[in-house]
Amino acid sequence: MPNWVDGHPAESLSIKDRGLAYGDGLFETIAVRAGRPPLLEYHMARLAEGCQRLGIPLDLQLMRTELLAFSAGLGEGVAKLMITRGEGLRGYAPPPVALPRRILQSSPFPVYPQVNGVEGVQLFPCVTRLAEQPLLAGLKHLNRLEQVLARNEWQGSEFAEGLMRDQSGRVIEGVFSNLFIVHEGALITADLSRCGVAGVMRAALLDSARAQGLKVEVRDIPFEDFLQADEVFLCNSLFGVWPVRSVTGHHWPVGPLTRKLQAIARDLLDI
Amino acid sequence: MPNWVDGHPAESLSIKDRGLAYGDGLFETIAVRAGRPPLLEYHMARLAEGCQRLGIPLDLQLMRTELLAFSAGLGEGVAKLMITRGEGLRGYAPPPVALPRRILQSSPFPVYPQVNGVEGVQLFPCVTRLAEQPLLAGLKHLNRLEQVLARNEWQGSEFAEGLMRDQSGRVIEGVFSNLFIVHEGALITADLSRCGVAGVMRAALLDSARAQGLKVEVRDIPFEDFLQADEVFLCNSLFGVWPVRSVTGHHWPVGPLTRKLQAIARDLLDI
């Protein structure tokens, strides 16, 4: 399957790249169906925000054109896009004129157990807590050691995802997905202004839910609210929506709002 | 100047490397004088601790041999060592059998203004605050976006370094150095169990100071203690010790303990 660096087939990158040295960059994990990324506008919007906040002068029009060409060639699968600030001098200071690098990698669409979507998943309660850094919160940047540590806390297939909380114990997200709870008919997802990754499926579901007149809240989720939720589900841009059925002995039913959002996600992803 | 990947001359790395994808690795910035790294044992000890805490199965004996050979070839300069967890499958989960990658890059010894060491430096008060993550605190890992943001807050040569505080405002370190204060004859440096990078020069100075019977404290440094300090200085493994003479209108004299530690650092670095 093809991989590109700056628009050309390539498998390697300079060891001087700041993406490697400092994680100085961003990424997007992009579902590609029938030669197109169905969530293109959401990915481009997040990338634009990330580049703006990190001060990376990416040519967004070129990036869009390149991603579309890559997706057309890929057909079906996952396009992983990484943007770095490019090469730099020694030291943390960004170069006066940065030449951002665009890396596109392809992989087959992952095969998840069907039961995850039908009956729901069990969450592993990760000990790794998310640090609070408002300047980086929400971004899908390349500094992901917390997720590596958290994902390494469990092995095997009993747990499909892990629950991540912040240093104060609030419920934030999964290791590779966002989390929603349902309480008295309202759809609630964590405020990500201190930590967490603002996923594109989360954004798309929030938009769709609002458009359908559902009550939506983006706010802090204390652990007690999570335990007392009527429904809990996860989402990301590859698997859509998975109901959550349990964590450490606590159980939730798979409820009607979860099923409604699951159908919306399927429509969005064309699966 | 030479660069090596896994012991062989190389300038590039696979785009599938987890160092790029997640910053899943560690680094060391190593002064090399007359073909040898004077702080070798401190670098190897920190690398060992980092690998142990991140679960990276690095062959430390091989690493030491390789670093010594690289240093001998380099003669005078800086050896930047990066260790990554190597290539992986898609997703955060570390591969069951990781093959860590060893990257060595050389650069000339940096030339700092002599006045920095003689008269001291002015600190830029960084707005970027360090997030608190005990699981990663102290490590020199590859997730360094906070330092990139902080270093980008000032340009030009008026400020030689920036002051970094934690989310609660405590004084932690410089952007690329550690910080000490002197109070009533005691040498005090920040406790780095919640955030910060535990520099090798900091460790070497702490050892030397203790060996000479100086009073040493590793503890939290409230901003008020910093402002009321008798002396303030910075250290790292390239420049040794720089006195701090001011930050935002507050001034310190260059005192006798700073000069004492500066001489120790010069001896350690052979400069």
Structure description:
- 2 copies of one chain form a homodimer.
- With 271 residues, chain A is of the alpha+beta class.
- The first copy, chain A, folds into 2 domains: 105 residues, Aminotransferase class 4, branched-chain amino acid transferase, N-terminal domain (D-amino Acid Aminotransferase, Chain A, domain 1), CATH 3.30.470; 156 residues, D-amino Acid Aminotransferase, subunit A, domain 2 (D-amino Acid Aminotransferase, Chain A, domain 2), CATH 3.20.10.10.
- In chain A, 29% of the residues lie in helices and 28% in strands.
- The first copy, chain A, contains 8 helices and 15 strands.
- In chain A, the strands form 2 sheets. In chain A, strands 7, 8, 9, 10, 11, 12, 13, 14 and 15 form a 9-stranded mixed sheet that branches. Chain A has a 5-stranded antiparallel sheet with strand order 2-1-6-5-4.
- In chain A, strand 1 and strand 2 form a beta hairpin.
- The longest helix of chain A has 15 residues.
- Chain A is globular, with a radius of gyration of 19 Å.
- The mean pLDDT of chain A is 97.
- Chains A and B meet through strand 3, helix 1, strand 5, strand 6 and helix 5 of A and strand 3, helix 1, strand 5, strand 6 and helix 5 of B.
- Chains A, B: This is Aminodeoxychorismate lyase.
- Chains A, B: Belongs to the class-IV pyridoxal-phosphate-dependent aminotransferase family.
- Chains A, B: Keywords: Folate biosynthesis, Lyase, Pyridoxal phosphate.
